[in-house]
Amino acid sequence: MIFIVVKFTVRPEHSEQWLSLVEEFTLATRAEPGNLFYEWSRSVDDPHRYVLVEGFASAEAGKAHVDSEHFRTAMAWMPDVIAATPEIVHTEVPAEGWSSMAELSPRWA
């Protein structure tokens, strides 16, 4: 699996609308055959920072994503909205998706 985490720092005047701005891109990416997950979170420390966690089934699926029209479209408008170059972790892991955390599970009374 290709596992990617990207930190986006958004210009303050656009931070409240960020999820709406990336909605079409997000939905198109989630619909890609090789996409395993594509999830946004907002930083609890910086209201202008969003974190994207994404997984693709293979390097080929990741390449198809980067070669897609929706990726090119997003890369065309994002420079006008971000405040800094995004930070990224990109690695291949020997997994096919999420697994359960062994150290923790819900306790029910």
From TrEMBL:
Organism listed in the record: Kitasatospora camelliae
The protein depicted here goes by the name Quinol monooxygenase
EC numbers, comma separated? 1.-.-.-
Residue ranges spanning the membrane: these are none
Q: Which residues form the signal peptide?
A: none
Q: What class of enzyme is it?
A: oxidoreductase
The record's keywords, sorted A to Z, are: Monooxygenase, Oxidoreductase
- PROSITE patterns per the record? ABM
